[in-house]
Structure formats: C-alpha cells, structure tokens
C-alpha cells in the first residue's frame, strides 16, 4: 500500500485509507505509535510499548502483594 504525503492546512500529513483504518481497528482521536526499525523504516501501530511495560510492572506488583490486595478488597 502506498500513501501520499500531502499538505493539510498548514501541516503535512497522510490520509489513511478506510481499509487500513478498519484493519488497525482505529477510531478518530486515537493515537498511532511510531517504532523505528533497524533497517531505517518505521512501523505504525495502535500498540503503545510504554503502556505494555507499565502493565507488566502492575502484574508483578499484583503478584507480589496479592494477599494484601485480597484483604483490602474485602
């Protein structure tokens, strides 16, 4: 798929085709994350690597303090 870089108002941008928006399950107002690839290219995804790291940390904390969290939930 080829996308043309266009002038949009005073900015420069890309217009994503409907099929790509559907494939990525994107909604207006959502963010795309850009990951630089080793070959010099980029990858656009709705995936947020920082959020994933934070959730992994939360999982570790919840495992470590599961008894305390269970007691607090009562």
Automatic annotation (TrEMBL):
Q: Which UniProt keywords apply?
A: Plasmid
Top-level lineage group: Bacteria
The record's section on SUPFAM superfamilies has:
AbrB/MazE/MraZ-like
Any GO MF annotation of the entry: DNA binding
Q: Which Gene3D superfamilies match?
A: 2.10.260.10
Record-annotated SpoVT-AbrB domain positions:
6-52
Pfam families reported for this sequence: MazE_antitoxin
NCBIfam families membership:
doc_partner
User: Can you say what this protein is called?
Assistant: SpoVT-AbrB domain-containing protein
Say which species the protein is native to.
Methylobacterium bullatum
């Amino acid at each position: 798929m080829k996308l043309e870089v266009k002038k949009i108002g005073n900015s420069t941008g890309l217009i994503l085709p409907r099929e790509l928006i559907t494939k990525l399950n994107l909604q207006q107002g959502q963010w795309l994350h850009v990951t630089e690839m080793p070959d010099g290219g980029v990858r656009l995804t709705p995936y947020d690597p920082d959020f994933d790291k934070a959730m992994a940390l939360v999982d570790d904390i919840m495992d470590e303090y599961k008894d305390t969290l269970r007691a607090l939930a009562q």
